[in-house]
Amino acid sequence: MAVPISQMWTVATYVLKKRLSGQKRYPLVLMLEPLFRCNLACAGCGKIQYPAHILKKELSPEECFRAVEECGAPMVSIPGGEPLMHPRIVEIVEGLVARKKYIYLCTNALLLKEKIHQFKPSKYLTFSVHLDGQREHHDFSVCREGGYDQAVAGIREAVKRGFRVTTNTTLFDGADANSVRAFFSEVMSMGVEGIVLSPGYSYDKAPDQKHFLGRARTRRLFRAILSNRDREWKFNMSPLFLEFLMGKRHYQCTPWGAPAYNIFGWQKPCYLLQDGYASTFSELMETTVWEEYGTESGNPKCANCMVSCGYEPSAVHDTFGSFRGFLSTVRATLFNRYEDHGARDLLNEPYSGAVPASSPLVQIVSDSRREFEETRV
Amino acid sequence: MTGKSASEHETKPVDPESLELAPGTKHEILEGWVPTLASEQETIEALEKAFDYRGDVTITRKDGPVVEGYIFDRRTGSSLAESFVRLFPKDSSEKMTIAYSEIAGLAFTGKDRAAGASWEAWVKKWNEKRSAGEKGFGLHPEKLD
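Output (C-alpha coordinates, whole complex):
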Protein backbone atom coordinates (compact mmCIF):
# COMPACT_ATOMS: atom_id res chain seq x y z
CA MET A 1 0.00 0.00 0.00
CA ALA A 2 1.41 3.39 -1.00
CA VAL A 3 -0.37 5.60 1.51
CA PRO A 4 2.02 6.73 4.27
CA ILE A 5 1.46 5.44 7.80
CA SER A 6 0.78 8.92 9.22
CA GLN A 7 -2.01 9.48 6.70
CA MET A 8 -3.50 6.05 7.34
CA TRP A 9 -3.40 6.72 11.06
CA THR A 10 -5.10 10.10 10.66
CA VAL A 11 -7.88 8.63 8.53
CA ALA A 12 -8.29 5.55 10.73
CA THR A 13 -8.61 7.55 13.96
CA TYR A 14 -11.00 10.00 12.27
CA VAL A 15 -13.27 7.20 11.06
CA LEU A 16 -13.16 5.35 14.37
CA LYS A 17 -14.03 8.53 16.29
CA LYS A 18 -16.99 9.14 14.01
CA ARG A 19 -18.20 5.58 14.39
CA LEU A 20 -17.76 5.57 18.16
CA SER A 21 -19.72 8.80 18.38
CA GLY A 22 -22.55 7.12 16.48
CA GLN A 23 -22.35 9.46 13.47
CA LYS A 24 -23.76 7.62 10.47
CA ARG A 25 -22.89 10.09 7.73
CA TYR A 26 -19.60 11.90 7.65
CA PRO A 27 -17.20 13.02 4.93
CA LEU A 28 -13.81 11.46 4.29
CA VAL A 29 -12.52 13.71 1.53
CA LEU A 30 -13.57 17.25 0.68
CA MET A 31 -13.59 17.83 -3.06
CA LEU A 32 -12.61 21.48 -3.16
CA GLU A 33 -13.03 22.98 -6.62
CA PRO A 34 -11.52 26.47 -6.45
CA LEU A 35 -12.32 27.21 -10.10
CA PHE A 36 -13.80 25.61 -13.22
CA ARG A 37 -11.28 27.10 -15.64
CA CYS A 38 -9.04 24.58 -17.39
CA ASN A 39 -6.29 24.57 -19.99
CA LEU A 40 -7.51 21.31 -21.48
CA ALA A 41 -10.82 20.39 -23.09
CA CYS A 42 -11.02 16.63 -22.48
CA ALA A 43 -13.67 14.67 -24.34
CA GLY A 44 -14.90 12.82 -21.25
CA CYS A 45 -15.07 15.81 -18.93
CA GLY A 46 -18.33 17.56 -18.09
CA LYS A 47 -16.89 19.95 -15.52
CA ILE A 48 -15.85 23.01 -17.45
CA GLN A 49 -18.70 23.84 -19.82
CA TYR A 50 -19.78 27.21 -18.41
CA PRO A 51 -20.17 30.79 -19.66
CA ALA A 52 -17.01 32.91 -19.47
CA HIS A 53 -18.14 34.93 -16.45
CA ILE A 54 -18.51 31.69 -14.47
CA LEU A 55 -15.14 30.38 -15.64
CA LYS A 56 -13.52 33.61 -14.51
CA LYS A 57 -14.82 33.19 -10.97
CA GLU A 58 -12.78 31.45 -8.30
CA LEU A 59 -12.90 30.71 -4.61
CA SER A 60 -10.74 32.91 -2.41
CA PRO A 61 -8.33 31.23 0.04
CA GLU A 62 -10.60 32.37 2.87
CA GLU A 63 -13.62 30.69 1.27
CA CYS A 64 -11.57 27.51 0.83
CA PHE A 65 -10.46 27.50 4.48
CA ARG A 66 -14.01 28.13 5.69
CA ALA A 67 -15.27 25.17 3.65
CA VAL A 68 -12.49 22.91 4.90
CA GLU A 69 -13.24 23.77 8.50
CA GLU A 70 -16.99 23.43 8.02
CA CYS A 71 -16.57 20.00 6.47
CA GLY A 72 -13.92 18.65 8.84
CA ALA A 73 -12.72 15.85 6.54
CA PRO A 74 -9.09 14.81 7.09
CA MET A 75 -8.31 14.81 3.35
CA VAL A 76 -8.88 17.51 0.75
CA SER A 77 -8.81 16.82 -2.94
CA ILE A 78 -8.39 19.92 -5.11
CA PRO A 79 -9.71 19.22 -8.60
CA GLY A 80 -11.24 21.76 -10.92
CA GLY A 81 -10.81 23.02 -13.56
CA GLU A 82 -7.05 23.16 -13.37
CA PRO A 83 -6.04 24.27 -9.87
CA LEU A 84 -2.62 25.49 -10.99
CA MET A 85 -4.43 28.19 -13.02
CA HIS A 86 -5.77 29.67 -9.76
CA PRO A 87 -3.67 32.77 -9.02
CA ARG A 88 -3.71 32.07 -5.26
CA ILE A 89 -3.34 28.29 -5.28
CA VAL A 90 -0.06 28.42 -3.33
CA GLU A 91 -1.77 30.36 -0.56
CA ILE A 92 -4.64 27.87 -0.52
CA VAL A 93 -2.28 24.90 -0.30
CA GLU A 94 -0.16 26.48 2.42
CA GLY A 95 -3.29 27.24 4.46
CA LEU A 96 -4.46 23.65 4.19
CA VAL A 97 -1.03 22.28 5.09
CA ALA A 98 -1.07 24.54 8.16
CA ARG A 99 -4.40 22.93 9.06
CA LYS A 100 -2.78 19.48 8.71
CA LYS A 101 -5.07 18.36 5.93
CA TYR A 102 -3.82 15.71 3.53
CA ILE A 103 -4.12 17.42 0.16
CA TYR A 104 -4.36 15.82 -3.26
CA LEU A 105 -3.84 18.62 -5.76
CA CYS A 106 -5.28 17.15 -8.96
CA THR A 107 -3.53 18.62 -11.96
CA ASN A 108 -3.04 17.88 -15.62
CA ALA A 109 0.54 19.06 -14.92
CA LEU A 110 0.79 21.24 -18.02
CA LEU A 111 1.87 24.04 -15.67
CA LEU A 112 3.54 21.94 -12.99
CA LYS A 113 7.13 22.32 -14.11
CA GLU A 114 6.68 26.07 -14.41
CA LYS A 115 5.02 26.51 -10.99
CA ILE A 116 6.56 23.80 -8.83
CA HIS A 117 9.15 26.14 -7.33
CA GLN A 118 6.34 28.05 -5.59
CA PHE A 119 5.39 25.02 -3.47
CA LYS A 120 7.19 23.44 -0.52
CA PRO A 121 7.36 19.66 -0.14
CA SER A 122 5.27 18.36 2.74
CA LYS A 123 3.88 15.03 3.84
CA TYR A 124 0.48 16.73 3.61
CA LEU A 125 0.80 17.69 -0.05
CA THR A 126 0.52 15.28 -2.97
CA PHE A 127 0.42 16.26 -6.61
CA SER A 128 -2.07 13.90 -8.20
CA VAL A 129 -1.23 14.08 -11.87
CA HIS A 130 -3.93 13.26 -14.38
CA LEU A 131 -2.53 10.70 -16.79
CA ASP A 132 -5.00 8.52 -18.65
CA GLY A 133 -2.49 5.98 -19.92
CA GLN A 134 0.55 5.69 -22.13
CA ARG A 135 1.51 8.63 -24.35
CA GLU A 136 -0.83 8.00 -27.25
CA HIS A 137 -3.77 6.98 -25.06
CA HIS A 138 -3.36 9.97 -22.76
CA ASP A 139 -2.99 12.50 -25.56
CA PHE A 140 -6.01 11.09 -27.34
CA SER A 141 -8.06 11.03 -24.15
CA VAL A 142 -7.28 14.59 -23.09
CA CYS A 143 -7.48 15.87 -26.67
CA ARG A 144 -3.97 17.34 -26.68
CA GLU A 145 -1.05 15.97 -28.59
CA GLY A 146 2.07 16.41 -26.45
CA GLY A 147 0.12 16.52 -23.17
CA TYR A 148 1.69 13.31 -21.90
CA ASP A 149 5.24 14.56 -22.34
CA GLN A 150 4.47 17.80 -20.54
CA ALA A 151 2.81 15.95 -17.66
CA VAL A 152 5.68 13.50 -17.34
CA ALA A 153 8.18 16.38 -17.28
CA GLY A 154 6.16 17.86 -14.42
CA ILE A 155 6.08 14.54 -12.57
CA ARG A 156 9.84 14.09 -12.88
CA GLU A 157 10.50 17.60 -11.63
CA ALA A 158 8.15 17.18 -8.66
CA VAL A 159 9.66 13.82 -7.72
CA LYS A 160 13.17 15.28 -8.03
CA ARG A 161 12.21 18.09 -5.64
CA GLY A 162 10.93 15.65 -3.04
CA PHE A 163 7.18 16.06 -3.46
CA ARG A 164 4.70 13.28 -3.00
CA VAL A 165 3.32 12.45 -6.46
CA THR A 166 0.64 10.04 -7.60
CA THR A 167 -0.89 9.55 -10.98
CA ASN A 168 -4.63 9.72 -11.45
CA THR A 169 -6.16 7.73 -14.29
CA THR A 170 -9.72 7.75 -15.57
CA LEU A 171 -10.74 4.89 -17.82
CA PHE A 172 -13.43 4.83 -20.46
CA ASP A 173 -14.78 2.22 -22.82
CA GLY A 174 -12.12 1.14 -25.27
CA ALA A 175 -9.33 1.40 -22.71
CA ASP A 176 -6.54 -0.97 -23.62
CA ALA A 177 -5.90 -3.20 -20.60
CA ASN A 178 -2.42 -4.29 -21.71
CA SER A 179 -1.41 -0.72 -22.34
CA VAL A 180 -2.80 0.35 -18.95
CA ARG A 181 -0.71 -2.34 -17.26
CA ALA A 182 2.40 -1.22 -19.12
CA PHE A 183 1.56 2.34 -18.13
CA PHE A 184 1.48 1.34 -14.44
CA SER A 185 5.02 0.01 -14.74
CA GLU A 186 6.12 3.17 -16.56
CA VAL A 187 4.80 5.55 -13.93
CA MET A 188 6.15 3.51 -11.03
CA SER A 189 9.58 3.74 -12.66
CA MET A 190 9.24 7.55 -12.59
CA GLY A 191 9.30 7.40 -8.80
CA VAL A 192 5.66 8.17 -8.08
CA GLU A 193 4.29 7.11 -4.72
CA GLY A 194 1.33 5.28 -6.17
CA ILE A 195 -1.42 5.07 -8.72
CA VAL A 196 -5.01 6.26 -8.42
CA LEU A 197 -7.59 5.08 -10.92
CA SER A 198 -11.29 5.07 -11.51
CA PRO A 199 -13.80 4.46 -14.26
CA GLY A 200 -15.11 7.71 -15.72
CA TYR A 201 -18.50 9.08 -14.80
CA SER A 202 -21.05 9.56 -17.57
CA TYR A 203 -21.24 13.35 -17.40
CA ASP A 204 -24.22 14.43 -19.47
CA LYS A 205 -22.36 17.60 -20.49
CA ALA A 206 -19.21 15.85 -21.75
CA PRO A 207 -18.51 16.04 -25.49
CA ASP A 208 -18.11 12.27 -25.78
CA GLN A 209 -21.30 10.45 -24.84
CA LYS A 210 -20.37 7.10 -26.38
CA HIS A 211 -17.56 5.72 -24.24
CA PHE A 212 -18.85 5.59 -20.69
CA LEU A 213 -18.29 2.19 -19.17
CA GLY A 214 -21.27 0.27 -17.86
CA ARG A 215 -20.87 -1.69 -14.65
CA ALA A 216 -20.43 -5.11 -16.28
CA ARG A 217 -17.72 -3.88 -18.60
CA THR A 218 -16.07 -1.89 -15.82
CA ARG A 219 -15.67 -5.03 -13.71
CA ARG A 220 -14.26 -6.99 -16.64
CA LEU A 221 -11.82 -4.24 -17.58
CA PHE A 222 -10.56 -3.77 -14.04
CA ARG A 223 -10.34 -7.51 -13.49
CA ALA A 224 -8.08 -7.72 -16.55
CA ILE A 225 -5.99 -4.77 -15.43
CA LEU A 226 -5.70 -5.41 -11.72
CA SER A 227 -5.30 -9.21 -11.60
CA ASN A 228 -1.86 -10.78 -11.87
CA ARG A 229 -0.26 -7.58 -10.61
CA ASP A 230 3.38 -6.73 -10.97
CA ARG A 231 5.15 -6.45 -7.64
CA GLU A 232 6.28 -2.87 -8.20
CA TRP A 233 2.78 -1.47 -8.70
CA LYS A 234 1.50 0.52 -5.77
CA PHE A 235 -1.96 1.98 -5.48
CA ASN A 236 -2.75 5.04 -3.43
CA MET A 237 -6.25 3.74 -2.83
CA SER A 238 -8.27 1.47 -0.61
CA PRO A 239 -7.47 -2.13 -1.61
CA LEU A 240 -11.11 -3.03 -1.02
CA PHE A 241 -12.20 -0.39 -3.51
CA LEU A 242 -9.92 -2.00 -6.08
CA GLU A 243 -11.57 -5.36 -5.31
CA PHE A 244 -14.93 -3.66 -5.83
CA LEU A 245 -13.83 -2.51 -9.28
CA MET A 246 -12.66 -6.05 -10.07
CA GLY A 247 -16.10 -7.42 -9.21
CA LYS A 248 -14.99 -9.14 -6.03
CA ARG A 249 -17.08 -7.00 -3.70
CA HIS A 250 -20.39 -5.24 -3.70
CA TYR A 251 -20.76 -1.81 -2.13
CA GLN A 252 -23.47 0.79 -2.02
CA CYS A 253 -22.59 4.36 -2.85
CA THR A 254 -21.61 6.75 -0.06
CA PRO A 255 -22.39 10.06 -1.76
CA TRP A 256 -21.70 12.10 1.38
CA GLY A 257 -18.22 10.54 1.66
CA ALA A 258 -16.67 13.04 -0.74
CA PRO A 259 -18.73 16.25 -0.71
CA ALA A 260 -17.90 18.95 -3.23
CA TYR A 261 -17.60 22.68 -2.64
CA ASN A 262 -17.19 25.24 -5.41
CA ILE A 263 -18.19 28.78 -6.39
CA PHE A 264 -21.86 27.77 -6.35
CA GLY A 265 -21.76 26.31 -2.82
CA TRP A 266 -22.05 22.74 -1.51
CA GLN A 267 -23.01 20.54 -4.43
CA LYS A 268 -25.95 18.16 -4.03
CA PRO A 269 -25.56 15.25 -3.74
CA CYS A 270 -21.96 14.56 -4.71
CA TYR A 271 -18.95 15.60 -6.74
CA LEU A 272 -20.39 14.15 -9.95
CA LEU A 273 -24.07 15.03 -9.95
CA GLN A 274 -25.41 18.57 -9.86
CA ASP A 275 -28.84 18.52 -8.33
CA GLY A 276 -28.59 21.93 -6.72
CA TYR A 277 -26.48 23.59 -4.07
CA ALA A 278 -26.62 24.10 -0.32
CA SER A 279 -25.26 27.22 1.32
CA THR A 280 -23.63 25.40 4.21
CA PHE A 281 -22.20 21.95 4.81
CA SER A 282 -24.81 21.29 7.51
CA GLU A 283 -27.55 22.21 5.08
CA LEU A 284 -26.08 19.81 2.53
CA MET A 285 -26.03 16.94 5.01
CA GLU A 286 -29.47 17.66 6.44
CA THR A 287 -31.49 18.57 3.36
CA THR A 288 -30.16 16.18 0.73
CA VAL A 289 -32.50 13.24 0.22
CA TRP A 290 -29.66 10.71 0.14
CA GLU A 291 -31.99 7.79 -0.58
CA GLU A 292 -32.59 9.22 -4.06
CA TYR A 293 -28.97 8.59 -5.08
CA GLY A 294 -26.69 5.62 -5.63
CA THR A 295 -27.17 2.68 -7.95
CA GLU A 296 -29.60 0.97 -5.60
CA SER A 297 -31.89 4.01 -5.62
CA GLY A 298 -32.85 3.37 -9.24
CA ASN A 299 -31.80 6.90 -10.15
CA PRO A 300 -30.69 6.53 -13.79
CA LYS A 301 -27.99 9.15 -13.31
CA CYS A 302 -26.34 6.81 -10.81
CA ALA A 303 -26.99 3.56 -12.69
CA ASN A 304 -23.55 2.92 -14.12
CA CYS A 305 -21.46 4.77 -11.57
CA MET A 306 -18.58 2.97 -9.86
CA VAL A 307 -16.49 6.08 -9.38
CA SER A 308 -14.05 6.40 -6.50
CA CYS A 309 -15.66 9.47 -4.93
CA GLY A 310 -18.80 7.47 -4.14
CA TYR A 311 -17.46 3.98 -3.59
CA GLU A 312 -14.01 4.41 -2.07
CA PRO A 313 -15.54 5.92 1.08
CA SER A 314 -17.76 2.81 1.23
CA ALA A 315 -14.64 0.64 1.10
CA VAL A 316 -12.96 2.68 3.83
CA HIS A 317 -16.04 2.38 6.02
CA ASP A 318 -15.92 -1.36 5.44
CA THR A 319 -12.29 -1.48 6.54
CA PHE A 320 -12.95 0.28 9.81
CA GLY A 321 -16.53 -0.82 10.33
CA SER A 322 -15.94 -4.40 11.32
CA PHE A 323 -13.19 -6.82 12.26
CA ARG A 324 -14.02 -8.75 9.09
CA GLY A 325 -13.58 -5.65 6.95
CA PHE A 326 -10.29 -4.88 8.64
CA LEU A 327 -9.04 -8.43 8.11
CA SER A 328 -10.07 -8.26 4.45
CA THR A 329 -8.05 -5.09 4.06
CA VAL A 330 -5.00 -6.66 5.70
CA ARG A 331 -5.35 -9.68 3.46
CA ALA A 332 -5.78 -7.52 0.36
CA THR A 333 -2.69 -5.55 1.32
CA LEU A 334 -0.48 -8.55 2.00
CA PHE A 335 -1.71 -10.84 -0.77
CA ASN A 336 -2.09 -8.34 -3.56
CA ARG A 337 -1.06 -10.24 -6.67
CA TYR A 338 -4.56 -11.59 -7.51
CA GLU A 339 -3.48 -14.51 -9.68
CA ASP A 340 -6.30 -15.10 -12.15
CA HIS A 341 -5.99 -17.20 -15.33
CA GLY A 342 -9.32 -15.94 -16.64
CA ALA A 343 -8.03 -12.39 -16.41
CA ARG A 344 -4.95 -13.39 -18.42
CA ASP A 345 -7.29 -14.73 -21.09
CA LEU A 346 -9.01 -11.36 -21.20
CA LEU A 347 -5.66 -9.73 -21.89
CA ASN A 348 -5.14 -11.98 -24.88
CA GLU A 349 -8.31 -10.91 -26.64
CA PRO A 350 -7.77 -8.63 -29.65
CA TYR A 351 -7.95 -4.89 -29.09
CA SER A 352 -10.14 -2.60 -31.12
CA GLY A 353 -10.51 0.19 -28.64
CA ALA A 354 -10.97 3.91 -28.56
CA VAL A 355 -7.62 5.13 -29.82
CA PRO A 356 -7.55 4.97 -33.60
CA ALA A 357 -4.08 3.49 -33.70
CA SER A 358 -2.42 0.25 -34.66
CA SER A 359 -1.70 -0.97 -31.12
CA PRO A 360 -2.17 -4.76 -31.29
CA LEU A 361 -3.59 -4.90 -27.82
CA VAL A 362 -6.78 -5.74 -26.03
CA GLN A 363 -10.50 -5.22 -26.32
CA ILE A 364 -12.42 -6.34 -23.31
CA VAL A 365 -15.52 -7.80 -24.84
CA SER A 366 -17.29 -10.96 -23.80
CA ASP A 367 -20.56 -12.01 -22.30
CA SER A 368 -21.15 -9.62 -19.43
CA ARG A 369 -23.39 -11.70 -17.20
CA ARG A 370 -21.06 -14.70 -17.30
CA GLU A 371 -18.08 -12.56 -16.33
CA PHE A 372 -20.01 -10.92 -13.54
CA GLU A 373 -20.92 -14.27 -12.05
CA GLU A 374 -17.34 -15.36 -12.31
CA THR A 375 -15.85 -12.34 -10.69
CA ARG A 376 -18.30 -11.28 -8.04
CA VAL A 377 -17.81 -12.58 -4.51
CA MET B 1 -42.95 19.59 -6.76
CA THR B 2 -40.01 17.39 -5.96
CA GLY B 3 -37.02 19.30 -7.21
CA LYS B 4 -36.10 16.42 -9.51
CA SER B 5 -35.77 16.87 -13.22
CA ALA B 6 -38.71 15.58 -15.17
CA SER B 7 -36.67 13.04 -17.07
CA GLU B 8 -35.14 11.42 -14.01
CA HIS B 9 -38.08 9.38 -12.90
CA GLU B 10 -39.56 8.71 -16.30
CA THR B 11 -36.66 6.67 -17.63
CA LYS B 12 -37.20 2.92 -17.74
CA PRO B 13 -35.46 1.09 -14.91
CA VAL B 14 -32.28 -0.65 -15.98
CA ASP B 15 -30.40 -3.53 -14.45
CA PRO B 16 -27.27 -1.57 -13.63
CA GLU B 17 -25.17 -4.66 -13.02
CA SER B 18 -25.58 -5.84 -16.59
CA LEU B 19 -24.75 -2.53 -18.23
CA GLU B 20 -22.00 -2.88 -20.80
CA LEU B 21 -22.02 0.69 -21.99
CA ALA B 22 -23.64 3.51 -20.11
CA PRO B 23 -26.16 5.19 -22.34
CA GLY B 24 -25.02 8.71 -23.08
CA THR B 25 -27.24 11.74 -22.98
CA LYS B 26 -28.79 13.13 -26.12
CA HIS B 27 -28.17 16.82 -26.02
CA GLU B 28 -31.30 18.96 -26.20
CA ILE B 29 -30.92 22.11 -28.28
CA LEU B 30 -32.21 24.92 -26.11
CA GLU B 31 -30.14 27.88 -27.24
CA GLY B 32 -32.48 30.62 -28.43
CA TRP B 33 -35.57 29.01 -26.91
CA VAL B 34 -38.17 31.32 -25.40
CA PRO B 35 -40.61 29.12 -23.49
CA THR B 36 -44.11 30.20 -22.71
CA LEU B 37 -44.78 30.42 -18.99
CA ALA B 38 -48.55 30.48 -19.12
CA SER B 39 -49.16 27.77 -16.56
CA GLU B 40 -47.52 26.62 -13.35
CA GLN B 41 -46.44 23.39 -15.05
CA GLU B 42 -44.84 25.24 -17.98
CA THR B 43 -42.98 27.50 -15.60
CA ILE B 44 -41.64 24.60 -13.55
CA GLU B 45 -40.54 22.63 -16.60
CA ALA B 46 -38.89 25.61 -18.27
CA LEU B 47 -36.98 26.58 -15.15
CA GLU B 48 -35.84 22.99 -14.65
CA LYS B 49 -34.37 23.10 -18.14
CA ALA B 50 -32.83 26.49 -17.41
CA PHE B 51 -31.19 25.01 -14.31
CA ASP B 52 -29.70 22.23 -16.43
CA TYR B 53 -28.62 24.60 -19.21
CA ARG B 54 -24.90 25.40 -19.47
CA GLY B 55 -25.35 28.90 -20.79
CA ASP B 56 -26.78 32.21 -19.63
CA VAL B 57 -30.49 32.87 -19.62
CA THR B 58 -32.42 36.11 -19.51
CA ILE B 59 -35.17 36.49 -16.93
CA THR B 60 -37.75 39.25 -17.13
CA ARG B 61 -39.32 39.94 -13.76
CA LYS B 62 -42.98 40.77 -13.39
CA ASP B 63 -42.07 44.13 -11.88
CA GLY B 64 -40.00 45.03 -14.94
CA PRO B 65 -36.24 44.45 -14.41
CA VAL B 66 -34.38 42.12 -16.73
CA VAL B 67 -31.54 39.91 -15.45
CA GLU B 68 -29.12 37.97 -17.61
CA GLY B 69 -27.07 35.31 -15.87
CA TYR B 70 -26.27 31.69 -15.15
CA ILE B 71 -28.76 29.65 -13.10
CA PHE B 72 -26.84 27.24 -10.87
CA ASP B 73 -29.58 26.17 -8.48
CA ARG B 74 -33.29 25.84 -8.11
CA ARG B 75 -35.21 25.07 -4.97
CA THR B 76 -38.75 23.94 -5.41
CA GLY B 77 -41.47 24.31 -2.82
CA SER B 78 -45.18 23.70 -2.70
CA SER B 79 -46.04 26.70 -4.87
CA LEU B 80 -44.41 29.06 -7.37
CA ALA B 81 -44.05 31.65 -4.61
CA GLU B 82 -42.10 29.14 -2.53
CA SER B 83 -39.88 28.03 -5.39
CA PHE B 84 -36.71 29.86 -6.36
CA VAL B 85 -33.91 29.95 -8.86
CA ARG B 86 -30.47 31.09 -7.79
CA LEU B 87 -28.14 32.63 -10.34
CA PHE B 88 -24.97 34.57 -10.90
CA PRO B 89 -25.87 37.67 -12.95
CA LYS B 90 -23.51 38.13 -15.87
CA ASP B 91 -22.13 41.39 -14.53
CA SER B 92 -21.96 40.60 -10.82
CA SER B 93 -20.23 38.27 -8.41
CA GLU B 94 -23.18 38.35 -6.01
CA LYS B 95 -25.62 35.45 -6.10
CA MET B 96 -29.23 36.42 -6.75
CA THR B 97 -32.43 34.60 -5.79
CA ILE B 98 -35.67 34.99 -7.74
CA ALA B 99 -38.99 33.35 -6.90
CA TYR B 100 -40.69 31.45 -9.73
CA SER B 101 -43.78 33.55 -9.09
CA GLU B 102 -41.84 36.75 -9.90
CA ILE B 103 -40.78 35.55 -13.34
CA ALA B 104 -42.71 36.89 -16.34
CA GLY B 105 -40.35 35.78 -19.08
CA LEU B 106 -37.45 33.43 -19.69
CA ALA B 107 -35.16 33.18 -22.69
CA PHE B 108 -32.18 30.90 -23.32
CA THR B 109 -30.07 33.74 -24.68
CA GLY B 110 -26.51 32.64 -23.90
CA LYS B 111 -24.44 30.20 -25.89
CA ASP B 112 -24.87 26.60 -24.76
CA ARG B 113 -21.36 25.75 -23.60
CA ALA B 114 -22.11 22.03 -23.51
CA ALA B 115 -22.99 21.93 -27.21
CA GLY B 116 -20.73 21.89 -30.18
CA ALA B 117 -17.56 20.06 -29.17
CA SER B 118 -18.03 16.59 -30.54
CA TRP B 119 -16.09 13.40 -30.07
CA GLU B 120 -16.37 12.61 -33.76
CA ALA B 121 -14.75 15.92 -34.66
CA TRP B 122 -11.85 15.15 -32.33
CA VAL B 123 -11.31 11.66 -33.77
CA LYS B 124 -11.28 13.13 -37.29
CA LYS B 125 -8.83 15.84 -36.26
CA TRP B 126 -6.60 13.29 -34.47
CA ASN B 127 -6.43 11.07 -37.52
CA GLU B 128 -5.77 13.92 -39.95
CA LYS B 129 -3.13 15.70 -37.88
CA ARG B 130 -1.29 12.54 -36.92
CA SER B 131 -1.21 11.37 -40.52
CA ALA B 132 0.30 14.71 -41.43
CA GLY B 133 2.91 14.35 -38.67
CA GLU B 134 1.77 17.49 -36.84
CA LYS B 135 2.66 18.11 -33.21
CA GLY B 136 0.99 19.98 -30.39
CA PHE B 137 -2.51 19.97 -31.83
CA GLY B 138 -5.58 19.52 -29.71
CA LEU B 139 -8.92 20.82 -28.60
CA HIS B 140 -8.63 24.03 -26.66
CA PRO B 141 -10.98 25.65 -24.18
CA GLU B 142 -12.85 28.63 -25.53
CA LYS B 143 -11.42 32.09 -24.92
CA LEU B 144 -12.89 33.79 -21.87
CA ASP B 145 -13.32 37.22 -23.45
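Chain A touches chain B through 58 residues (CB under 8 Å).
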